[in-house]
């Protein structure tokens, strides 16, 4: 993982967001989206599986990027099976990235 982490930034969201565990509050939700947006804007990124990947998408022993194909790999559920409706790339594309893009537009418009 050290090679991957050398040019990456990790965000730790406080809570156990697996289904049936901690319920994400409105404040946590807003903060997660806003911090992600500010980092996207600072580094000129657009939300995608290449710019935002969940810890779950990586083999924690080998550092291999497995995305949604984690069978046989050492992986975590991070950021949680209930994080913005799931921790899969499909869920991120459907439920997290659109919120980030929407907030990016709002913040960008307010800066003009």
Summarize this, please?
With 112 residues, this protein is an all-alpha fold.
The average pLDDT value, as a whole number, equals 92
Give the biggest sheet: none
Helices and strands, in order, run as HHH
Total count of strands: 0
Give an overview of the whole structure.
With 112 residues, this protein is mainly alpha-helical. The protein is built from three helices and no strands. The chain has helices at 2-5, 26-42, 89-110. Helix 2 packs across helix 3. The radius of gyration is 14 Å and the shape is globular. The model has no long low-confidence stretch (mean pLDDT 92).
How do the strands and helices of this protein lay out in sequence?
Elements: H1 2-5, H2 26-42, H3 89-110
Helix pairs in contact: 2-3
């Amino acid at each position: 993982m050290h090679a991957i982490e050398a040019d990456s930034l990790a965000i730790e969201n406080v809570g156990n967001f697996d289904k049936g565990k901690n319920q994400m509050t409105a404040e946590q939700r807003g903060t997660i989206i806003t911090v992600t947006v500010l980092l996207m804007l600072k580094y000129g990124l657009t939300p995608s599986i290449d710019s935002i990947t969940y810890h779950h998408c990586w083999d924690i022993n080998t550092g291999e990027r497995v995305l949604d194909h984690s069978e046989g790999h050492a992986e975590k559920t991070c950021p949680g099976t209930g994080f913005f409706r799931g921790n899969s790339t499909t869920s991120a594309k459907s439920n997290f990235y659109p919120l980030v893009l929407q907030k990016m537009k709002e913040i960008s418009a307010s800066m003009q």
